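Researcher: I'm comparing several assemblies side by side, and this is the next one on my list. It has 938 residues spread over two chains. Same procedure as the others: predict the full complex and return the structure.
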Amino acid sequence: MSDTVTLTIDGKPVTVAKGTNVLEAAKTLGVEISAFCYHPGLPIVAQCRQCLVSIEKNPKLQPSCQQVVADGMVVHTTDPVSTLARKQQLEFTLVNHPIDCPICDKAGECTLQKLYFDHDNADSRVDTPKVHKAKVVDIGPHIVLDQERCILCSRCIRTCDHVSGQHQLEFAHRSDHELLTTAPGEQLDNPYSLNTVDVCPVGALTAKDFRFTMRAWELDATPSICNGCATGCNIEIHHKNERAWRLVPRHNPDVNDYWMCDEGRFTYHDLREHRLAGPTVEGLPASWDRAIASAAKRLGVFLKDPAQVGVVLSATCSNEDNYALARLAKEWKVGLVLVAGKPPVPARADGRLRVADVNPNAAGVKAIAAALGLATTPSFELDRAPPANLRALVVLGDVLPGFDAARLKELEVIAVASHERGVVTGARVALPIAAWAEAAGTVTNAKGRVQRMHAAFAPPGQAIAGWDAIARLGHATGVKLAWSHAREVWKDMVAQVAAWKDVTWAREVRPLALRFAGSRG
Amino acid sequence: MPDTRTLKQLVLGRKDVQDLSDNEQELPPELMTVNMGPSHPAMHGTVRIVLTVDGERVVRGDVQPGYLHRCFEKESEHATYTQVFPYTDRLNYVSPMINNVGWAMVGEKLLGLTGKLPRRTEYIRVIVSEMSRMTDHLTCVGASAMELGAFTPFRYLLKCREWLYELLEKVSGARLTHSYVRIGGVSKDLPSDFHADLTLALDRIEGVLVECEGLLNNNKIFYDRMSGIGVMTREHAIATGCVGPIARACGVDYDVRRDYPYSIYPELEFDVPLGTTGDCLDRYLVRLEEIKQSIRMLRQCLAQIPDGPVMADDHRVALPPKRDTYNTIESMIRHFKHIMDGVRVPPGEAYAFVEGGNGELGFFVVADGTGRPYKAYVRSPSFVHLSTAGDLIRDHLIADVVPIFGMINMIGGECDK
């Protein structure tokens, strides 16, 4: 028996894998069947009845999301019966829908708006008052529910069940008084709760973090990778006016499917807090030229005996930045190479997307150091055996756990970091670099998957890409690192890291204005 | 040694021609390059002509448009179909209503609405188009006369134009950039007293035209400066793609309103004036006659215009009434989608063209099924006409560049696309 099935949809033959549903089969032909409750990442319930199609030799319309394809099946999506069914279903759905578009956060990316405009576009025939329900229901720490807007598709209920494994939402009452509410004794507080906002086809569930901040059609989207932990969920940065407004998951079946955790979504706030906007020398603002010259002069004294110099690679920074610094460490022949990163949070690990390691790039740093033949020490082991002859330290990133503060004060610390906190505050020279959302680069997740980040907007102030700052520092100390773009750093790097030799540098992606993307639904 | 120079030489510092030696008189003059524009009072709308002159005679004229950086076509790809109307206003900004109508027609062609609009809409469109044609010709004729020294007719004709502008402002809310027409109709109905106002304005304009013709047509200076200047042959006009009053002055019998009729033009009686010699005087006379024909058409329209809606009853193009928008979710969504995503035009390609102030004005659109054009192209008559300017001014005096250029009636906004 063959594994594929051939059927006809709207007169066109299509061959799909066995077990596919009609809706997905139509999608391969470019036929978009309207649906509210169907979501490719969730169990199917055929509840909204929006995707009804007529199938020959079948007396009744069938929900295409639930109908599995069969050989010889003849499906019609544009015949009068199914067209009328779609229109009537939309009319039903809109009967009690509030007139909220101007104040609704979902407007512009609302599936209900899109489907009504595409498939119905008729005038209202209702002359009875709408059924009113609660407008602002605080159902959890991150989410507000508007019960009037809810069209009862149950996507959010299934998202909680399926993604976080916690049944926290439920329907109550019946008929046009049916409403979405929290399950008895529960509130919507699972660590994946904000996925319900993404899947909500209307504006019933809105994120407290995003609501009333920005209209969806004003935003630009740039693909990137979440830097919140070692999973490396694929995301889109939605940004405008040189700042991010929200992070939403991007489909990747190999990493995060359609989902990401709430904690990861909030990491964008950090892009605007405690940023190092310009180079500093001894805590005072300086020009790039002076800061680099000063750093080189301080280092030059100790580089005569490189055992006095230490270099700190960072699991919070990209492969490119780490490779640049690792190259310097190798050329300088430094005595100590540390790897720093945020301390693990074992409570996070849940066997789903969240893992204990909250650094995006620990695997990448390990691979780079190994490829360059550098012996590394995790920084938190230092307080046990700090090398007595250490005089200077070049630190990438702002975290350096396990290092004695008093000991740090005695050292000439050159910090290359995006944020002014932690080790950067006491640094003799601080060089500002772009954070993860502001520069092109790659990170390697816990499974060794190298993933590409794109620059969404410009870094603040005088910050430049990390590898660039490090190359300038190298140049001033007599090490020639000639790169003009992150891609060139990448090329250099993959030539040396055997495991990455087949990975290609993805095409540059320019931000896509969401208003051109139409309704995302 | 006594000073032998004459008093004149001392004062003026140079010799008279008769004082020059034979040798000096016969010296061939050098060709000289002179910039005319881009910021020259007679170079309407910022265009530069690099003249190579032999004394007063133009040997070569290199016409260089492109100072306005309009980007109409590219900008249109980023705007919804409705948002393009303000851009079309700024094409030929002396007759924006005609541009509005042309853009609306290309959308309607793709939507299959051509010929299905309410009758009143079609009448309103023709009325505002013909008013715009009058403002266009009044400006062209008036400005050209003024550049030849006749300031009075300029003031008289611009006075007429102002009456029309005031009326168009009443209709649309804006004196110059109207953005009045919509795909599927017009944005609002005519004001209640429009009928009487326009009748009055037309009567007064007819009177002023008689005055101006008296001042110009038999004026020796004006006649000599225009007659036989910038002659274009019929063949030249066709070969270079000239249309409109310029081509008709050369005897090319082509008018979109008559030959490819649109809207209600087939039901109107009007004549298409033709010239015989193709010089500046003919272009002037053709324009003057077209003003009179427009008046004739406007009077017919005012007599025939029916009552009725001004927007097609089609949910694909018509915004819902405000009352419904605020009170039903269906209309609210449709309103939102129309404004944010634009009128959804089915995929395809279409070219729609109208008789603009300067001739055939065409819009070509490639639609991809979204609310924004995938590609927009404008066939702007001024751009074509300007390409003939270099030929027309050759072998004329520098002073003749002004009437020739004036009668080409280049409009910068339309030329830079």
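Model: For your comparison table: The mean pLDDT of chain A is 92.
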